Each structure stands twice: as structure tokens, then as C-alpha cells.
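Retry 2 of 3 after timeout on previous attempt. Resubmitting C-alpha cells to design endpoint.
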């Protein structure tokens, strides 16, 4: 199931990974990240996380219905 999800949601997982790396780099370069930038960045991460969770729920519900 996880392999299938990774194949399906590859773009979102890559975006999440890149976002996390960029956040770490920016925080190392400058400890004073703009609050607005951080707010939008965290908002994007939450949207991606919710999308992945919804896909997991759909996959799980579909498998449950088939049984």
C-alpha cells in the first residue's frame, strides 16, 4: 500500500521533501525568517499533508469495502 501511495503521490511527496529542506537551509542561513513566509510555508505543508492523508483514507476505505 505504501509503495502504491508513493507512486501515486510522488509529486506531492517530492514537494514536501523540497519544502522541508528549504526550510532547514533558510533557518540555518538566517535565524530570523519572516513570519509571513513561515506562515505561508507551513500552510503549504499542511495542504500537502491533508491531501496525502485523504488519499490514504480513500485507499484504506476502498480496500476495506472490497473485503
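Retry 2 succeeded. Sequence:
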Amino acid at each position: 500500500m505504501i509503495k502504491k501511495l508513493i507512486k501515486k503521490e510522488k509529486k506531492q511527496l517530492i514537494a514536501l521533501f523540497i519544502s522541508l529542506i528549504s526550510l532547514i537551509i533558510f533557518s540555518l542561513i538566517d535565524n530570523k525568517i519572516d513570519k509571513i513566509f513561515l506562515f505561508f510555508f507551513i500552510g503549504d505543508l499542511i495542504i500537502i499533508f491533508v491531501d496525502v492523508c485523504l488519499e490514504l483514507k480513500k485507499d484504506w476505505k476502498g480496500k476495506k469495502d472490497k473485503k
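Attempt log closed. The chain has a mean pLDDT of 71.
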